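To assess whether the prediction recovers the assembly geometry, we first specified each molecular entity separately, as shown.
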Amino acid sequence: MSVFLLILAAFFLPLFPATMLFTRLAVSTQPLPVRLALVVFWPQIGVVLILWGELEPGPILATWAVMSALFYAFRMLTVREVGRWNAMLAVSAWPLVWLYALQTPAPVDLVAVTLALTTAPVLMLVVREVLVGRLGAAYTGLHGGLARDLPRLSGIIVVATLAAMALPLFPGFFALLTLLGSAPVGFAIGILLIWLLWSWAGARLLQGTVFGPRSGPVAADLTAPRAWGFAGLVVALTGAGLIWTGGAL
Amino acid sequence: MELQWLIALLPFLAALLVHLLAGRLGHRVAHLSVGINVIVVGIAAFQLALYITGDTGPQWMGLANGWGSLQLDPLSAIMALVVAGISLVVHVYSIRYMFEEPGYARFFMLLDLMTGSILLMVMAGDLITLLIGWHLIGVVLYFLLTHNTEPPRAQRYAFWTFITYRLGDLPLVLATVILFQAYGVLDLPTLFDRIAESPDARTVMGLPVTGTVAFLVALAAFAKSAQFPLHTWLPYTMEGPTPVSALMHAGIVNAGGIIINRFAPVFVHSSEVLHLLFIVGLLTAVIGSLMMLSQNDIKKSLGYSTMGQMGFMVMETGAGAFALSIFHLIAHGLFKGTLFLGAGNVIGAARRHDGVPNEPLYDFLVERKSAPARVPWFIIGAVTLIVPLVILVGAHAWVAERFFQQQGAIVLLFFGWITGVQVLFTAQRLDTENPLRMMALIILSFAVIVIGYVLVGHSFEAFLYPDAAFRDALYSSAGIDKLTFDVLVVLLAVVFVLGWIGAYLSRTRQRPMDKLPAGARLMLYSLLSRELYVADVHERVTDRLLALSRRLNIWLRWR
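The predicted structure of the complete assembly is given in tokenized form:
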């Protein structure tokens, strides 16, 4: 039973090659609310399985989780379609929950850390939707230099990317600190490498969208109310992250 | 009211206000930003004065759950004033300099965010706040460097800076984790007390906590302060606006020295890491100076000059002179900031006058000036070698007799002596009408500088590290075996003197470079012109990694 649950959980807190199911679903699902629901609830099913089955991941599973996360973080470097990039970000972040589960935390903390690691994919989904709506596609390098005439849109891309890089004060930052707080040094080095790769991939994403010479079709910028709406979402998520995982170490 | 909160928080408030009011105030928003920065400078100066005149000692203030705290101690008090002061100058300069640039309000918002981030890092009272400040510096710098969003070169070099800074962020995270796991606290005063109580704690594989943490902090400092081989970003980040270059070279790049000083209670137990700091700093100073001399681009030359200075600063910490490194970074920040902000005037002056000196024959015949003269080389040689040594030793002996018992002090005197000799040697080579007068003036200037520097330096050290035993412990920790040290000093002194003799003789006889075979000369030229191929190696590795990532994605059909 527990082995079956473990394998099942490996699909929801995805470990390579079970990751491919989520990446396929994330790219093929169309309406935004469904995508959002998929991103928010998918890893929580894994958390529920861990808690319900009282699964105790051993060091081998934890090592596999780090390697899987590292693998996808590395692959993110050359992905240009923002939706696919986001799916890879998610399957690079969620396996780290296994490391936290290794420390048998309180259920609420496990849920909180998983949600914190889900924040960036949620924000990036919104960004992808806005990009596709305005430019017809969300490819880095295809429609570059948006900062010149689409400052609000560029602003939300920047904020979502900074969240994807798990920079302070975004919830991902505190989630990673929580993970690192009691991780063995070997795993800690793995997490730091993943963190570095996210930063590299994020910077490449910014260079291919916000910065550089302007290319692509003329498009209207985000309206002020929508930009404020996004800012409100960011503030709410950051505030929730600070309250739930801000205690960090 | 605890005013130290305002020092770190007001710049963030300024950034928010600039963003919100930019549409309504237009270009006047810059004055709002400057106004708030004036208040920050005022509070920082007031706090420093209060700290010096009062007897409250270091103060710590934080939120309940262990992080989100600031502290006011000698290091944070003095650095807060320096950072806020330099930032204010850059703000004022930018009002007109950036006036016609697009994104005027965004620039001031970023400038305020950068000021706030540095102040947060400088004043952090716990490990998490320190990490937040440390991370934010790199991120905000990236956006400042890409302020002009279109030129690909600006993007490229801003990315180099960003990724190097991220490389420097992560060792500090690991150091934080190790410290928390070993000592179970986050706030710095308690942490340092516990380290002093049990400095022999062990971490993974039986490694000493203090040594491991010191090594990781040193790595973080190397990335932020452009130490070899993590220096390539510094000379290339001139694509950003000039005020950003000034702020970067005068303030941001000093973060390495500040973090090393902040962790002095850890470094005092880590002799090996102090030696590593010395070696890396020395290497960086030499390579930075060599590269500075071989550049034909003046801005890159300034960049390499900063690299050399940062190397010297790190080397000072490696010699145990922690306070001196802070004194150095403040002095360097002020003069380098002035150089950058005055660069436009230099260019203007160069357009009016090419600066090429006249031929001596022209001066003699047309300008009616007397022919240049020289003092006999033997007298000059003796004066050149002995006078700086006498001034340096005399000044230090006057201020602190026990100073000479520390190896670190001898190292610094040695470098001071070399610098003094080099100045006199260069002066001796100048063509001048009255060489004796020039020599006397230089010796006088040197004496004034050394005596002033020594007086201020020793007072500064006593202020920054009031505990004399701790200062001695830092010097002792940086020391090496006495015999090895003495041999090294004598050997290096001989090498330098021979070098000066060689340089003198090369003026009258064949130049040493001309004696080298053509192949060796070409190799040397290639090495220097390609800047030791460090950037090429970084690029090659990056390209390989990206190619591998792309291949993996193709194999797995992007899933």
